[in-house]
Amino acid sequence: MNNQRGVLTSILAVGAAGAAIYGISRGVQNGTFRQMTKTVSNALNSQPIQQMAQPMMGGMTNNSNLQQTLSNQNNQ
C-alpha cells in the first residue's frame, strides 16, 4: 500500500513539473513572461516597497556598525 502512494505521489510531482514547464514555455513564446518579470521588477522598485525596506536596511547597517565597533574594541 505504501508503494502505491509513492507511485501516485511521483506521478503527481512529474505532472506538476510538466505543467510548470509547459506554462513557462508558453509564456516565453507569447511574451507574457517578459511582461510579468517587468511588472514584478517595477513593483519591487515602487516607493511603498522602498519605504518599507529602509528600516530593515537601516537595522542591518546599524548591526554592521555595531559589529565593527565591537571588533575594534576587542582588538585594542
Fold and architecture overview:
- The protein is an all-alpha fold and 76 residues long.
- It has three helices and no strands.
- The longest helix has 29 residues, at 2-30.
- It is flat, with a radius of gyration of 24 Å.
- The chain starts with a helix and ends with a helix.
- The relative contact order is 0.05.
The first-to-last residue Cα distance is 67 Å
- Overall pLDDT confidence: 76
Beta-strand percentage range: under 5%
- Write down the secondary-structure element order: HHH
Q: Which descriptor suits the 3D outline? A: flat
Radius of gyration: 24 Å
Q: Spans of 5+ residues with little confidence (pLDDT < 50)?
A: none
What profile does the largest beta sheet have? none
User: Helical percent range?
Assistant: over 70%
Class based on secondary structure composition and strand pairing: mainly alpha
Based on DSSP secondary structure assignment, what is the total number of beta strands? 0
Total helices: the number is 3
